[in-house]
Amino acid sequence: MNLSISRKLLLGYLCMALLTVLSSVYAVISLQKLNLVAGDIANRNFATVEIAKSMMDTLLAQENAEKKYLILKDPSLEQIYWLRSSEFKTSLEKLKKLNDGHHDDKILDNLTLLSGRYGGFFFQEINLIKERRFQEAMAVSDSDSRVTIEQIALQVKEK
């Protein structure tokens, strides 16, 4: 089959146009996928950072209420502590829902365990204060509670 120069040129330009269209379609599809992934990461990571900040604030408020309770022995401070503890658990549940199926939940499970442990130490402090064993309550606060708070803070920062 003899092709004239004009037909050869036309065929060459058609091949180049087809390759250009195919590469453009591939680029658009790739950019769309990248945009979806970037949007997902940005939205989830932003929410995770905001929840983690909230958890740190709540943890500090819990610790503050605990220390004030040890000094003042005011039952309203006990209620504030338990309210903050509930807020911490709510934030933890939000993180679990946000994280569902994306990452390993070991950190979140560990945070749940540590939060429960911290509540247990505070409950122990309350009982010791009611029994007028103030030094022992302070010792629990200064050792066990302090270590648990530090562990929680480290876990929240990792998340």
Description:
With 159 residues, the chain is mainly α. It has a domain at 49-158: Four Helix Bundle (Hemerythrin (Met), subunit A) (Up-down Bundle), CATH 1.20.120. The chain is 90% helix and 0% strand. It contains 4 helices and no strands. α1 (5-72) packs antiparallel against α4 (134-158), α2 (75-99) runs antiparallel to α3 and α3 (106-130) runs antiparallel to α4 (134-158). The mean pLDDT is 93.
Number of helices: 4
Structural class: mainly alpha
Overall geometry comes to: rod-shaped
CATH architecture of the domain at 49-158: Up-down Bundle
List keywords for this structure.
mainly alpha, 159 residues, Four Helix Bundle (Hemerythrin (Met), subunit A), single chain, 90% helix
Would you kindly provide a brief summary of this structure?
The protein has 159 residues and is mainly alpha-helical.
Note the topology:
Blueprint: H1 5-72, H2 75-99, H3 106-130, H4 134-158
